[in-house]
Amino acid sequence: MSNTDSQPRKKDGQFTTRMSLEDVLAGMTVYEPYTASELGDKLGLPRTTTNYYLNQLHNQGEVQKKKFHATRVVWMKTP
């Protein structure tokens, strides 16, 4: 069973949220780069869910991202 298969779902098939944006942000160290997979492993979340949260935090100005390859992005929490 994959990590995403073990996540609880709502009746419409969407995953239920077990973490807030603040929980995700608290799991990051200032200026420490993370991939969505690395942070997801640390927080116990699927990569896709973690990426969704990170994009929301980026839109709020809480984290920075740097794309260093066509398929690789690193995320950093800034003070």
From TrEMBL:
| SUPFAM superfamilies for the chain | Winged helix' DNA-binding domain
Q: Which InterPro entries match?
A: Tscrpt_reg_IclR_N, WH-like_DNA-bd_sf, WH_DNA-bd_sf
Q: Which residues form the HTH iclR-type domain?
A: 33-65
GO BP, one annotated term: regulation of DNA-templated transcription
Q: Mind listing the GO molecular function terms for this protein? A: DNA binding
Q: Which domain of life is it from?
A: Archaea
What is the protein name stated in its UniProt record?
Answer: ArsR family transcriptional regulator
